[in-house]
Amino acid sequence: MHPFRSSSYDLLRAVQDVSVDIAPGEFFGIVGRNGSGKSTLLKCLAGIYDVDEGELTINGRLSPFIELGVGFNPDLTARDNVIINAIMLGLSRKQASERFDDILAFAELEEFVDLKLKNYSSGMHVRLAFATAVQVDAEILLIDEVLAVGDAAFQQKCFDEFMRLRSEGRTMLFVTHDMASVERFCDRAMLLEAGRVVDIADPASIARRYNQLNFAMVRQEQGALPSHGATDAAPKPQVAQVLNAWFEWPRGKLTTSAVQGETCDVRMDVEFMEDVDDPIFSVSLQSEAGHYLFVASTDTSHVDTGPFRTGSVAEVRLSFENHLAPGRYRLFATTARAGLGADVFDAHISSSLIVIPAHPGGGMADLPHGFDIKRR
């Protein structure tokens, strides 16, 4: 505010030198750490942001699943908002009216159709927006972290709907931090860091690079790795690599959902590039709020893992009684050197598990329990 004080600014190039061709019918993943430019790129494609350099060529009708519900009027009913939003997304008034019942049924909000949106919960609001957007006849879908909308049952419905759209040959650009979804759905993927392309390759390779990049940053923050400016330390050769990790329910069957109270398995495969004795294998589950609700390792469980020779692969399976509360959980799988476990060889951020409720309840976990009542 001072008239003689000089002002300065920093220039942030959110996306730069990104060049990629996406084929019709391709399910293309875009991944990267927070602030890498993923959402900015999608907003440029959607026409929300203008680009100051380069070209964007889009051949087909677009439907953006970005910031769902933008344009909704809280003083109008769900009925009016659905019609208006569907028209904004490209449907005619007749098409919007014809699909209105399907939209309400998908959102499971038939009972609240004449309720004003300002009286909706945030979850109901997003479900209505998602159900509206998914009805648009678009050849290209831009999806920005919308598979986590609503409760666990609605999340599964979103997964199923995207599978249907994929089978119909729609072109889909999918921004996410969930590497299991990338490996499960995508044909190819692109890794961004600081607005630039790190790599474009098959989903498994990109998921591995993403995990390595994240883990390297964490170790650097903890002082385990030199900073980017250090030039006197050569990178250490990789000792072991977590090839993949996933949930199984029932045993042996890959799954993204499991019923509360049932036994669930975690499977991880680890390849060794050097001879290692008694490596530590660890698994942890994290809630959507970022809380670690379950952590298990062969070290704390006093399991002797034995020696592994160069080129061998460890097939590790952990079984646990699923007493987690209904919701979505992310799997972290790591392997480390014997001892304190501080020397981590590799980490893999993998599958999401949707826990389906078996009965009414509450809290962060549904622990086994019993009551003893006496009358005196």
How does this structure look, described?
Residues 218-234 have low confidence and may be disordered. Strands 2-3-4-1-5-6 form a six-stranded mixed β-sheet, with helices on both faces. It has a five-stranded mixed β-sheet with strand order 9-17-16-12-13. Helix 2 packs across helix 5 (122-133). With 376 residues, the chain is an alpha/beta fold. Helices cover 23% and strands 28% of the residues.
State which percent range the strand residues make up.
Answer: 25-35%
Global structural class: alpha/beta
Name the helicity range: 10-25%
Largest β sheet strand count, sense and barrel closure: 6 strands, mixed
Arithmetic mean of pLDDT: 80
- Low-pLDDT windows of residues: 218-234
Count, helices: 8
Give me the count of strands: 17
Distance between the termini: 75 Å
- SSE order, as H and E? EHEHHHHEHEHEEHEEEEEEEEEEE
Strand line-up of the largest beta sheet: 2-3-4-1-5-6
Tell me the Rg in angstroms. Answer: 24 Å
Can you tell me the overall shape?
Answer: globular
